[in-house]
Amino acid sequence: MSRDTPRPTPVPLVYHPSYRIRFFGIERLHPFDVRKLERIHDALVERGYALPESFRAGEPIGDTELAAIHDPGYLASLRQPEVLAAVLEVPVPRLLSGLIERRVLAPLRRAVSGTHLAATEALARGGLAVHLGGGFHHARPEGGHGFCPLNDVAWAVHRLRQGGWGGRALVIDTDAHQGDGNHACFAGDEQVHCYSVHQESAFPLPKVPGDLDDGLPDGAGDRELLELLERRLPELFAAAQPALVFHVAGADVLHDDPLTDLRCSVEGLCERDRLVARAGLQRGVPVVHLLAGGYGPSAARAQTRSIQGLLHLDARLR
Ligand SMILES: [Zn+2]
């Protein structure tokens, strides 16, 4: 190792190789870099931030347990290729439906439990935890859409409560799309405060009101987003009084994302993530960082750099 090689981070990292979802080659038709999470994982290892054995994974969650947060009929329907295809926005051939559970649903079920694992670790150490995945913020109790079949943050909060945790949570969603699923899952839940800042004209339409929403105009970039967050973060922490923060930190705010029209730079995304993490960690509030959406050309590079920055920030603030 050279003098500049970082030590492997003590920050809990959650990831599983199955997160690279394969649709039998059909995924190449989708405008997604399906290898994004794998690329980020590999870069963190190659650059010395993590060892291959640093990453932990959750266990896939079954429908019986998921019925605590999702409608059982909807969960059963996910085994139908046409239902899953509509949620994930890719064609799923009927002939291959027997592989859906193993190739598609099992990795998603594991990713859902990964966010709970990251939350448990963040609370245990009173600091940052990073899930290279999660942030399925469009999944509502009665059904998913927008590439989000199951809601990982709702599952994490449910499981924490089952384990006796009684804290308040703050969901900060800075993905370019509104976190309608999180808003719906936590509607009426006084213990969870949901904030979303997003491109107002983008999916989903219509939007589901959360505790606080900020819609950005088309073409907004670093300045608009970062100035807004600087103002909002103190208000959010004062209103929510959280014991845990979930940051749904999508990369689709980037200028080259094919699905949105926000114009953030790689540096702007890194600064966004640093602002949110610092707001929590400086107040002694653990932060769970979730990668959420955004699969454009520079998404993996941006989120790798962002995570590196967060690991340095965690080391400085501890
Ligand atoms: Zn998104």
Order of SSEs: EHEHHHHEHEHEEHEHEH
CATH topology (level 3) name? Arginase, Chain A
Share of helical residues: 25-40%
Low-confidence stretches: none
Number of helices: 10
Supply the CATH class. Alpha Beta
The largest β sheet comes out as: 8 strands, parallel
Q: Assign the CATH architecture.
A: 3-Layer(aba) Sandwich
State the secondary-structure class.
alpha/beta
Q: Which overall shape is indicated by the principal axes computed on the Cα atoms?
A: globular
Number of domains: 1
Mean model confidence by pLDDT: 92
Query: What is the strand arrangement across the widest sheet?
Result: 2-1-3-8-7-4-5-6
Q: Give the end-to-end Cα distance, rounded to a whole number of Å.
A: 25 Å
Query: Which value, in Å, is the CA radius of gyration?
Result: 18 Å
